[in-house]
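Run log // design_07
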């Protein structure tokens, strides 16, 4: 992953373009997400453990998400996927909105990789 640019405007639009180009390959339902490399957290079924790969939000929101444990490469477990998404992160349960969950890209864990 490249280093962030000092020019936030150009960096933000570049991230948005990358995000939209990746989005074309995302599954349309959570049933298909077993096969994807990366997809939004809001496409994952409850009970699944995943690794956070990318935060497609503003730099301020990225900083805040990292502060509460949603950093890149962090393994999390989605506990519920209803109105709010409740995730187990660093032995804590955190609730995020469906919209925010759609901006957090994750990948399924490989064999032998678990949260515990």
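design_07 sequence
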């Amino acid at each position: 992953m490249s280093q962030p640019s000092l020019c936030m405007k150009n960096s933000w639009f570049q991230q948005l373009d990358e995000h939209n180009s990746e989005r074309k390959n995302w599954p349309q339902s959570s049933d298909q997400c077993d096969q994807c490399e990366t997809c939004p957290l809001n496409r994952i079924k409850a009970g699944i453990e995943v690794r956070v790969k990318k935060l497609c939000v503003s730099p301020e929101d990225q900083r805040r998400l990292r502060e509460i444990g949603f950093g890149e490469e962090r393994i999390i477990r989605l506990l519920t996927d209803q109105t709010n998404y409740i995730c187990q992160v660093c032995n804590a349960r955190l609730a995020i909105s469906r919209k925010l969950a759609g901006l957090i890209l994750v990948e399924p864990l490989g064999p032998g990789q678990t949260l515990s």
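Residues 51 and 75 are 4 Å apart (CA to CA).
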